Amino acid sequence: MRRESTNRRGRGVRPFRWKEPALSTVTAPARFALFPLRVARTLSLTPHLVRITLTGESLTGFVNGGLDQRIKLLLPLAGQTEPLIPPGDGDFGWYHSWREMSPEVRPVLRTYTVRGRRREPDEIDIDIAVHGDAGPGSRWAVRAAPGDRVAVYGPAVEQAGGVEFTLPADPGWVLLAGDESALPAIAAILEELPEDLPVRVFAEVDGPGEEAYLSPGRAGVETVWIHRRDGAPGLTEAVRAAELPGGRPYAWIAGEAAGVRELRRHLVGERGMDRRAVCFMGYWRAGRTEDQRGEDGPEEEA
Asked: Is residue 254 predicted with pLDDT exceeding 90?
């Protein structure tokens, strides 16, 4: 039997209510909304990637933009069975309330990519890079079980935002690069690219066990795996050493913020790519959690 919540109530914070709310209370007339959800099932995909499938009646109002669609996941603190939901409007008001909450009650906030969306039943898949107890997001993902309660801040209307990959009208080829945190977005992007478009993928991962995540796909996709455990050079060095196609490129790179900036400088400064054709995102920053990065509010990320 699941224990009752041990949440401590803070001023201005209402407890998470698990009687499924009316749709109108979840999908305010805004681009984004907070969706109360529960874990339907989990699946280990590779040694460091876990799929968490979430479900709930509120997902009828969730609109997935595809490609690298980002959402924010609100998780309970240790010892809690449900997160506390900060008050505020569907777009950004809740985030400011979240920042003002006491750390003793403020839910863990992490940003992930929507890997899949299904109807009947309504479900979304979130593939999470895990490293044991290295952080609260990883810790939650490796222990998640059916029935666990979370909340998702995500799009409630078409073209709400949170999708950065924007293919030009006439690209010659596409470069996708990142670490484990970027693999879910890379996989989703690959599914939607034109079949005759050449693609180069550079993936920096712990070891060979992670390669199973990107199953062999269509012709025209070449993948270079960089195995961190074997002492391979980093992502930038792997791209620098590669012979890339000619023609007009479009690049999408994501992962650790400093490494992403370094790779972008190489592509623009050394390879001569048009900076407008290089989409780049720091999904995480070494030594800092998302809770510490006040600049990563939904105003910039969603």
From this structure: yes
| pLDDT over 90 at 289, yes or no | no
Edge-first strand listing for the sheet containing 199-205? 221-227, 199-205, 173-179, 249-256, 278-284
Q: Alpha-carbon distance 131 to 149, whole Å? A: 22
Contact between residue 164 and residue 246 where contact means Cβ atoms under 8 Å apart: no
- What are the Cα distances from residue 136, in Å, to 75, 92, 97, 177, 218? 9, 23, 21, 25, 36
Rounded to the nearest angstrom, the gap between the alpha carbon of residue 222 and the centroid of all alpha carbons in its chain is 23
Secondary structure of 98-123 in HEC code, one letter for each residue? HHHCCCCCCCEEEEEEEEEEECCCCE
Higher per-residue pLDDT: 131 or 1: 131
Helical segments of the chain, H only: 23-26, 93-100, 136-143, 183-192, 235-241, 257-265, 298-301
- What's the rounded Cα separation, in Å, for the pair 244 and 288? 33
pLDDT above 70 for 22: no
| Topology classification of domain 23-159 | Elongation Factor Tu (Ef-tu); domain 3 (2.40.30)
In the chain, domain spans: 23-159, 173-284
Read off the tokens for 86. 């900060």
From residue 92, how far is each of 86, 95, 151, 154, 300 by CA, in Å? 11, 5, 15, 11, 11
pLDDT confidence of residue 90? 61
